[in-house]
Structures are given as C-alpha cells and as structure tokens.
Amino acid sequence: MNIQDFTGATLQHHHNESYDPSPDYAAELSSVLDKKACDAAYNTIVEWEGYAPSPLVSLSGLANKIGVGEILYKHEGERFGLGSFKALGGAYSVLKLLIQEVSKTTGQQISADDVISGKYTDIIRGITVITATDGNHGRSVAWGAQKFGCNCFIYMHAGVSSGRAKAVEAYGATVVWVDGNYDQSVHDAAQAAAQNQWFVVSDTSYEGYTELPKNVMAGYTVMTTEIIQQLPDGTPPTHVFVQGGVGGLAGAVCAHLWLQLGSERPRFVIVEPDRADCLFQSGLRGEMTDVSIQEETIMAGLSCGEVSSLAWPILLRGTNDFMTIEDDLIAPTMKLLAKGVDGDQRLVAGESAVAGLSGVIAATMNSDLATKLGLDGSSTILIIGTEGATDPAIYEDIVGMSPADVVA
Length: 408
Ligand SMILES: Cc1ncc(COP(=O)(O)O)c(C=O)c1O
Description:
Radius of gyration: 20 Å
Structural class: alpha/beta
Shape: globular
CATH class of the largest domain: Alpha Beta
Number of helices: 17
Strand content: 5-15%
Number of domains: 2
Mean pLDDT: 97
Distance between the termini: 20 Å
Bound molecules: pyridoxal-5'-phosphate
Low-confidence stretches: none
Largest sheet: 7 strands, mixed
Order of helices and strands: EHEHEHHHEHEHEHEHEHEHHEHHHEHH
CATH topology of the largest domain: Rossmann fold
C-alpha cells in the first residue's frame, strides 16, 4: 500500500461560516454538556474495574510521509475490552439511568457505588433498557446492563454483521432484528420502549428525547480529558479530524476541547462517508438535515442519516470544516495502520475508526484542499481512532491479516 494511492480521491469539503471563534464555550451549549458533566463522567468511569487510559500514539512516520508535523492517534481499540470508545458512553448512561430510577423508587438519592455494590439488585432486576445500534453502542449498553444488573434489548438492522450481533449477545442482551436501516431501528426501538415501559438508552437524540444521550456524550469526554493529560509537552494540536455518524462523538469532542482549550482549541474537522453525510448536508444548509441512506457504507458505525439534535448546536458553532470521503479509502488506511509507516507502531483499527485519518491523508494529496484546511509541516493533527477490530472476520477480510497477527 502506497500513500500515492490516496491521490485523486473524491472528497467533498465545506467550510462552515457559522463557526463561532469565541474562546469561551457558548453558554447556551452548557445545557447539553458542561465541565461539571464531563468531570462527573471521568470521576465515575475511572473507578470502574478494568479502567485504563487509552494510549495517544504518535504516528510520526506517517506524518512525515504526508508532509504534516505530527499525527496523534487516540487508540480506542482496547477500551474496557469492548473494542471501541463507545464503551464509555452507553454503559455510563445505563448507570446514570439506574441511579435515577432507584432513587425514585426508594425516595433516597443513591450513588454509583450503591448500584455497583449490588445493594439494589432487586429493584434493578425489574428495569429494562433498549437501544438501536449499528454495533458498538449496543455492545456498550449490553455490557453496562450486565455489569449493573438490568435487562437489555438491542435492535439491529440487517446491515449489522452477525459478528457484531454475537458480541452483543455475549453480554446477555437479546438482539431483535429490524427491517430497514439504522434510522428505522432507532424508531422501532423507541416504539417498543413506549409500549413496554422500557428505557431507551440511545446515543442519538430526537424531539422529546434528550436526557440520556447527554450522559452518553459526557461519557465520551473521558477521552478528551485523557488527551489533555497525554499531549506531548502539553501542546494542543492544531487540528482534530473526527468521524461522524449521528454526531454525538464529534459533539462531545468539540465541546470538551472548547471547554478545556478555549482560544487554543484545534481546527475542528468532521469526516463522514459520502453515503451517509447528514452532518455535511446539515453544514451546507446551516440547519439539521436528514439524508436517506441508499447504500450501506463499509464504515458501519457511521451509517446514520439522522443528526443527533443535541450534538447539532455544538457542531454548528464549533465545526470549522465538514468533509466526506468515499468507501474505497478505508481499506488502504486500515492497511497502512496495520503495517505501520516507517517504524510507526502497528495498530488494529476498524472500518469506522479510520475515516478521520483517511480524510487527512487524502486532503494532503490535494494541494487545494490542504491549503484550505491549513495542513502543512507545522500541523499537529489529533485523530480519534474510535474502534479496533470490532468484527475480527471483517477486519481480516479487509486487511489480509488477523488482528492478532498485526500486533504480534
Ligand atoms: C467506531 C465508531 N466511530 C465513530 C462513530 C460515530 O459516532 P456518532 O454516531 O456519535 O457520530 C461510531 C458510532 O457508532 C462508531 O461506532
């Protein structure tokens, strides 16, 4: 695999005129995510068994090859043994829901420790959570439900691989297959919850449903708290390229970097598959815009046509650039990471993990776009490598090596 193979990729780019240059995080966004919520998520999640910060890996060989200063890759492939950053969001939201419900039932304000210690097992056993997923979020919710002792249903559409469904079932959840795409599975899960008095623990938000997804986004910010602690010499990156599905991840990263870094926050670029470009289209129009997915993208975790209504106000003000890429950049990027460029650490990165990095590499091969994005030898680019081989069979098929061989 050769870097030159990224030359001539079809990319779309939109510079966001609604970007808010103020160093101060906009006050009206605090109702979605604020410092207190980010700190609370961090302080809770670091106490969970098996917690370890995910590494921030320098890809200086690759950076050198594409003519940028540095690439810092936040490698989420091992997070809590679940294989993606989503471990931080869904499970945390399940915990917050259980705290709330047990507090209501007992009439006392209970704590996370009370839930984890098993003190309220009898009440929790009667609670059922449900969500739609394209794999990773459902795995997190199922893991959280098992960990904290409630019941769990996970709705999946036919585009989700059986490997990803089995991984969810391994945590004791019941998988329900839905006709249609991801967006349909979100609607069906909401309907089933309403009929059965179950609790939707979604990673996306929509009219009338916003509270629990805020906790999901707060959970994601454990990554940005760690990143600030891990930055070499404490120097902020100049750019961050984040992949977008519904925008929850991008919203959380954008808000928390803004809160933590103010005027030093990096240029914020969202990269999406062109087959599921709801954030790009929303950026173009300056308002939330849904798209109808005609063909599933290889980036399964990003195959979303409806924007999270919570994330959108953050992204409208905090995003500098929206980009789309085509599916055929994904395999080359996964292979580059698996082999390691010029001595870089070899990394197992799944299909949805590499979208941001694919966008960076392809943009540097297009001098117009590189100029528009301000990418040059002085750029330090932060990448959120959101998943490892969450379906090992698909990974091996694409990369030609098993995840174990890559790291051996
Ligand atoms: C691996 C991976 N990366 C990125 C995303 C995008 O997150 P969001 O849908 O919050 O934009 C997802 C979503 O499922 C994912 O699984």
